[in-house]
Design goal:
Blueprint (H helix, E strand, L loop, with lengths): L46 E2 L2 E2 L3 H12 L1 H15 L4 H10 L4 H14 L4 H16 L3 H10 L4 H8 L4 H18 L4 H14 L4 H15 L1 H9 L11
Antiparallel strand pairs: 1-2
Helix pairs in contact: 1-2, 2-4, 3-4, 5-7, 6-7, 8-9, 8-10, 9-10, 10-11
InterPro entries: RecX_HTH_1st, RecX_HTH_2nd, RecX_HTH_3rd, Regulatory_RecX, WH-like_DNA-bd_sf
Subcellular location: Cytoplasm
Function: Modulates RecA activity.
Length: 240
């Protein structure tokens, strides 16, 4: 057998050399230190080492505000209105929260008033109808809710004018009937609890007492007799 020729391949190439051993790093030396690490610093745009940490919606608002603050105000209002109808005061509060300038907010809200996008009177009428028929709230409670939403008292009064006394008394009676079905205890205590429940919904003391007495009288002859024995004057519930 012929011997291996000088210079024959050994599997690493004709003139391959063993790979040089990796140089150990000097203590405390980081060869990639010049590349930096995420989080080393946050620039003025909120980018953290190349990674943006600012919420996308706020960044978009900031960029838009720099170009057109009026467009930003309109977008904020439309997002608020997409959830549910709003009063002018509610929209003004939302704009102020996003640091929209007062004069810009006033201009946009005035325009929305003109075209009917904002209509506190329509809002108040719808609120009264919905909350009375859906929750059984009376005028006093409805007035408080609307005033908290920034609706002018004159507008509130006009909206409540559509809710007459007869309608409220009928609603109070229906609420009393339902409440009596689930209230347990001594007769006097039951009467007081149901009257109190109606009072918390905004019904005057006289209306609440009459409603509960009528609801008791309609249940049975025994309850009717009990209702006659109850003195409304013992209930410290002032009328509206």
């Amino acid at each position: 057998m012929a011997g291996r020729r000088r210079g024959a391949r050994t599997g690493r190439g004709w003139d391959a050399k063993p790979p040089a051993p990796a140089r150990s790093a000097r203590p405390g030396h980081d060869p990639d230190a010049h590349l930096g690490q995420p989080g080393d610093e946050i620039d003025r745009h909120g980018r953290d080492g190349g990674r943006d940490t600012e919420p996308r919606s706020r960044r978009a608002e900031r960029e838009q505000a720099a170009k057109d603050p009026y467009e930003l105000a309109r977008e904020i209002c439309l997002r608020q209105l997409a959830v549910r109808p709003r009063t002018r005061a509610e929209l003004a509060a939302a704009l102020a929260k996003r640091d929209v300038a007062a004069d810009v907010a006033e201009t946009v809200l005035d325009r929305y008033d003109e075209v009917g996008i904002i209509d506190d009177a329509a809002f108040a009428r719808a609120w009264v109808s919905s909350r009375h028929h859906g929750r059984g709230l009376a005028s006093r409670a409805l007035s408080q809710e609307l005033r908290r939403k920034g609706v002018d008292q004159e507008v509130v009064t006009e909206a409540l004018a559509e809710l007459d006394d007869e309608t409220q008394e009928q609603t109070a009676y229906e609420l009393a009937v339902r409440k009596l079905r689930t209230t347990r205890g001594e007769p006097d205590a039951v009467f007081r609890r149901v009257v109190g429940a109606l009072a918390r919904k905004g019904y005057p003391g006289g209306v609440a007492v009459r409603a509960v007495k009528a609801a008791l009288a309609a249940r049975s002859a025994e309850d009717a007799e009990l209702a006659e024995l109850i003195d409304p004057d013992t209930f410290d519930l002032p009328d509206q």
